[in-house]
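Schema walk-through. Below, the input block comes first and the output block second. Nothing else is stored per chain. Lengths vary across the set, and this one has 189 residues.
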Amino acid sequence: MNLSFLPNLLCLFRIALVYPIAVWIMQGRYAEVLFLFGIAAATDGLDGYLAKRFNWMSDLGKFLDPVADKLLMVTLFMCLSIAGHIPWWLTFSVLFRDLFIAYGAVVFRWMFGPLHGHPIVPSKFNTLFQILLCLAVIARLGFGFPPAWAVTLLGALVFVSTWVSGLGYILAYSRRAVAVTRQRELEAR
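--- output ---
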């Protein structure tokens, strides 16, 4: 029996969780949101493990996984800002960074060719801080823990890491563009 469809199915399931998470944030059902967020995190880890362990990677999966992750995080930030629990300026910073990175990737591909890259280290920290901030805000709303200072500290870490990783991508794209331009010049000689 071929189960290579499982990682993609898990991604689709994670996408399906976005709607109830959004509704429950707006309804103030934070314990349920934490439960669904835990399921989403588990499916994210499981689909990645299955894809790598059994070589069940697919082009669809390479598209679905980051879409599911971004959709979940954008939904969390937007809903928590709409509900007044995360400041809009922080949500706009996170969204602007993501849009800027996507725009840069499109421009790079258009001008220089395929962009064969992986997330830079500051971006991985940024993602971790975003997840921890959303978890902390929801846990504080639902259970009164962690303390307010910890949520504020995580918000500051998200803000700083958002800008550091955004600048890191600008530098990475710039270095690759220079390398491609030099290679083209050498080939033209």
